[in-house]
Predict the 3D structure of the following.
Amino acid sequence: NRIPPEPSGGRNSAEESVNGLAGDPLASQSSGLKPASEDPSGGESQPGTPLPVPGHSGLSIQEMVAMSPELDTYAITKKVKEVLTDNNLGQRLFGETILGLTQGSVSDLLARPKPWHKLSLKGREPFVRMQLWLQDPQSVEKLMHMKRLEKKAYMKRRLSSLSDGHSVDGALAGSDYVQGSQSPGQQQLKKPRVVLGPEEKEALKKAYQQKPYPSPKTIEELASQLNLKTSTVINWFHNYRSRIRRELFIEEIQAAGGVGPGSEGGSPSLRGSKSGEGDSCDGTESEGTAETRQGLGIGLEDHRGACKDHDMEAESEAGGSNSSPTQLDCVTSGLSGPGSSCGQAGLGLFSLTEASSSSSASSTNIPASGPVRNPRDNNLRKKKAANLNNIIHRLEKAASKEDPSEWEF
DNA sequence: TGAAAGTCAATATC
DNA sequence: GATATTGACTTTCA
């Protein structure tokens, strides 16, 4: 992975920023800006653990990551978002200058940080960088300075392009900063981005519910039925599994009562029909997650194991009957409604696959009687029902096997 | 070696 | 214009 080019020709790569945190020549100007971290040691929601400053300690960022104590990734991202918002600093500038990441990555990282213990060394690096940045009393000043430099450079380009009779965009397009170092010829060779339609996504999600780890044969079939490349289907499954897992981490933190986004009502899993529509691998939703799992003693690793088990079950079931359509038929035909023989695989007592994709409580099959509940309660109920489904399904599976050694939990 | 993790960058959305 | 999403790809890990 490369570090993005420098925006304005200045010394602002992430590496330099980190290594230069202690000794940056930028003068501290009193501007009334909210300091990045008035209390580096951290208040209740503050990123807590102060790190040694690389410039002083002589450590590389990798060494610092390796030596770093456990950091509260949620508190760090929360604080970073706060500082960026308060000072009107963009994710792009922050990402490219401080983290060496692109805007999209920064957005993702800030919105869905993974817990420290789930991160690899490489994954921890941005959080260490953020922590260092927060610790730096001049962090905001430096970034503001960078912003000014960028603006200056932009104005300069605009002026010169105007005098040359070229558009600014044209001038920008020719720079590394905007387009990278590709020549126009290379740009034309670029593959167009595949954008999956809602039907395709729906079919893939249904397929995922039945087989989170599809066999190559299933992938082939899915690809041909959806008219996609097999690599697209493979990528989709990789990405979906990965993103579902991340949603689960968020939920786990929330359930643990941490500083997670839930404390502000911003759980990604509850964002309506976007990424929150994620399903867990065994026919339930991602919402059937930590809270419930913890209560029932099912951890994430167990959950993942269940995915594979379920996959194998689905695999054997799919090819096992001649009298009913295969699961794949059901997935791609969209005929899994009531009365159809489709849509039953992987479901327990409550049918949550389709209905609970909506954030509306009434869309679940959970009885609506009783006192009016707030959305949080409904979500909890959905989670519990979904998890119950999962357990019941596996119990049923287990019970259907004569040899106890074949029971799968 | 396959799956997960991490990231880019095009595109969508606000 | 800034931020969010997501398909594709590379790197890391078990």
In short: Confidence is low (pLDDT under 50) at residues 1-46, 169-187, 260-326, 334-409 of chain A. Residues 1, 90-92, 103-104, 106-108, 111, 120-122, 191, 193-196, 231-232, 235-236, 238-239, 243, 274-275 of chain A lie near DNA strand C (CB under 10 Å from a C1'). Residues 183 and 332 of chain A are 41 Å apart (CA to CA).
